[in-house]
Amino acid sequence: MVQAEPRWELPVNDSLLAATVPGVADAWYLLLSRWGTRSFGELLKPAIELAERGFPIGEPEARSWNRSKDLRRYPATARLYAPEGKTWKAGDLFKNPGLARTFRRMVEAETQAAGNGREAGLRAARDRFYKGDIAHDMARFSEENGGLFRYEDFAAYTAKVEEPVSIDYRGYTVLKNPSASQGPAELLMLNLIEGYDLRKMGHNSAEYLHTAVEAVKLAMADRDKYLGDADFIRIPWAGLLSKEYAAERRKLIDPAKASVELRAGEAERFAPGFEPVTRPSDVVVSSNGDHAGDTSYIAAVDRDRNAVSFTPSLHSGLGTKVVMGDLGFAFNCRGDYYSLVEGHANALAPGKRPRSTLQGTLVLKDGKPFLVAGSPGGDHQTIYTLQTLVNIVDFGMNAQEAIEAPRFTTRSFPSSPFPHSMFPGELSVESRVAEEVRRDLVRRGHKLFVHPPWSQGSNAAIVIDPESGTLAAAADPRVAAVALAW
Fold it and tell me: Is residue 12 within 8 Å of 18, Cβ to Cβ?
């Protein structure tokens, strides 16, 4: 790979210049229209009540909001999150009447059109957001506050339903979103580690952790070279996901030495008829780029055993930091994910989706849903969900054990947010990993960082017993997460 330095900069986690068109409202519409049974009115009712009546914030929110200068820098944001210079404390009620009004407008449109059927009502609610007065409000605020969005950007937007890509991992079918997502990187990781007897290595042994993190580095190097918006680039899936390609890549893993280079492969050689792919890398070594993120994750399974893995997110806390006037929400700031290097898989282009860190895992056993899993964490998401899956499949843990087990991660690959920084050879583990294991990892050349015992990730998962249909839900004790059933 040829490394290229961009001449310009992208705003990171800040301002409307870092934003992309909000997609969640159209995602709601697609989910409800194709697979749902309820209306926007039914499903938005609890959110409207929370926004109007308020809910008590916790200590982390109070601390974050009080120390954030961004909440006071933008007037519309200050009115919502720091009214009259408010200092927050745990237990204070946070209300968002603007968001409640926005949702009520959508429900109103649905109600007015419902006489023509459920689908017409759903479409009317969706269109009021993207083509109606809400879209005009967003466009006007953008234009008046230095943003580049115009009404036509919202009116032309549509989310996409895409066929997933998948691999077989030890008899389980693992599925991922194929385009504009880092999700398939987990498939590459699984293909690499499938060539090892992980159970024989031992869970969180030095041998296992070394092998796993080296596989992660190779997969993330391929993420940098190949993954992006498939409407703009061709991705050699047949090669990337092949066992033959994984076997070749696996030869690069030195069992005694940590790698410090970004080593993308040539997956197209394993995709018949695919031309050679020559793309520049976009990486800055040891800068201040951020691999983390501020995201939510929801796993759900219903009585018919339909499963959903959903990762709604603004990317960072409050996204762009700019509340859109009186609408009660801020845009996500995933525009800072683009590359400014021409020819890169994730290079900035009009109408192109940035390659998102958002991803979830769906696993089938004998064609039936078996596991739904995911996690917040920015670039670390696929690394965290990889460990949940491996802990269940290879080490025989139940869902809660798999999530509570000590974790590792790395930043030895380009970060998604600009300037796409890499920390070569870095390996982070929770302090619950045995000290003798940590010493062994250092001897193998890893730049080891030890973090508090319950600090890496915030996973959730649901396992569906393929025979009885029994559900086992698990939530991460590292954060304020819950597993619910009714």
Answer: yes
The string of DSSP codes covering 45-114 is HHHHHHHHH-EE--HHHHHHHHH-SHHHHSHHHHHHHSGGGPPP-TT-EE--HHHHHHHHHHHHHHHHHG
Per-residue confidence at 211, pLDDT binned at 50, 70, 90?
very high
Question: What's residue 467's pLDDT?
Answer: 85
Is 179 found in the same domain as 95? no
Q: What is the pLDDT of residues 398-441, one digit of tens each?
A: 999 999 999 999 999 999 999 999 999 999 999 999 999 999 99
Lowest-pLDDT choice from 5-9, 145-149, 200-204, 325-329: 5-9
**394 Cβ contact list (under 8 Å, min separation 6):** 170, 198, 199
Name, in order, each residue with C-beta under 8 angstroms of 364's C-beta and a sequence gap of 6 or more: 172, 173, 175, 370
Same domain assignment for residues 351 and 207: yes
Q: Are residues 117 and 236 in the same domain?
A: no
Q: Are residues 155 and 210 in the same domain?
A: no
Write the DSSP assignment of 402-468 as a string of letters.
HHHS--EE---S--SSTT-EE-TTEEEEETTS-HHHHHHHHHTT-EEEEE-TT-S---EEEEE-TTT
User: At residue 370, what are phi and psi to the nearest 5 degrees?
Assistant: -120, -45
Nearest to 48 by CA among 429, 420, 328, 398: 328
pLDDT score for 1: 45
Domain for residue 481, yes or no?
no
**4 vs 52, residue with greater confidence:** 52
Domain range for 213: 165-309+337-475
Dihedrals phi, psi of 289, to nearest 5 degrees = -65, 155
The two structure tokens encoding residue 438: 């940590």
Residue type, 47: A
Give me the residue label for tokens 């092998």. Answer: 211
Angle at 311 between CA 188 and CA 136, to 5 degrees: 125
Residue 322 belongs to a domain: no
Separation of alpha carbons 403 and 312, rounded Å: 20
In a domain, 326, yes or no: no
CATH code, domain with 184 = 3.60.20.40
Q: What is the DSSP letter of 327?
A: S
Please indicate, yes or no, whether residues 196 and 128 belong to a single structural domain of this protein.
Answer: no
- Say if CB 283 and CB 224 are below 8 A apart: yes
* pLDDT tens-place string over residues 24-58: 999 999 999 999 999 999 999 999 999 999 999 99
Candidates 284, 461, 328, 319; CA nearest to 44 is 328
Whether residue 108 sits in one domain with residue 29: yes
